[in-house]
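Following up on my earlier thread - several people asked me to post the actual chain instead of describing it. Fair enough. Here it is, all 147 residues.
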Amino acid sequence: MQAQIMDALKEAMKARDSVRLSALRAIKSALKNQEIDQGAALSDADCLKVIRSQAKQVGETIAGFEAAGRGDEADEARAQLAVMETFLPQAMSPEEISSLVAEAVESVGATSMREMGVVMKVVTAKAAGRADGRQLSTAVKAALQGG
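Reply from S.P.:
Thanks for posting it. Predicted structure:
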């Protein structure tokens, strides 16, 4: 994955695409920092976590810019977010999440909220980063409460 990012970075430099270049440099920097913190090379799963974290930060930045009435900066941040999202797996639809939760509840045999942790563990592993933890938690709660 890091090789893909480096290739995209080189392409952005050649194309003089400043927005794409800025987003890719932020990703590269965050990956390098994580690698230093970890003291070892990053796996693709680690890279996805870092990129997801960067994308979340940019999303929060967009909200801040919009609240401050700074539309131009918000638009640029949205373009950077789009670049980051190209490296992330496609998000699961609500229907896919519901189906996944129903399968997990059935496979675990969960019948009450006390088993939410067990169900969440299964659902989180199967979602493999394609869904936000908050979405998964909400769906599991709804399924276990009979809703």
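The mean pLDDT is 90. That should answer part of your original question.
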